[in-house]
Design goal:
about 120 residues, alpha+beta, three-stranded antiparallel beta sheet, Arc Repressor Mutant, subunit A
Amino acid sequence: MTLDLSVLAPAACCAPLDDDGMTAAEAETTAAVFKALADPTRVRIVNLLARSREPICVCALTPVVGLSQPTVSHHLKKLVEAGLLTREQRGTWAYYELDRAAMTRLGTIVDLEGGAL
C-alpha cells in the first residue's frame, strides 16, 4: 500500500512580513540618532535635559558630567547634529534644550503597539 502525499498541503514556514514602514533614508537618520546616543556621557546629557523645564547652559552641564567645557560642547554638538537637541546662543554661552518632537519620533521606532514612523 502506498501513501498518496498529494493530498497533504505544504506546511507554512512563517507568515510574510508586512511593509516595515521605514524607508532606507529614515533608517539612516535613525541609525545616526542611535549612534549619537551610544556614548554614556551623551545619554546623561539627554537625561539631564529631559528633566529640565528650561534650556541649560553648557557651563551648568560641565560640572555635573565632570568633563571640560570643550568636551561637553563636543558631545552637545553631536546631539544637535543628530537632531536630538536645539541650541540657542545667548551672549557668550550656548543653551541647549531637548527636542521633544525628536524624542517622540524616536519612541515610535520601538512602538510595541505596531505604530509607524
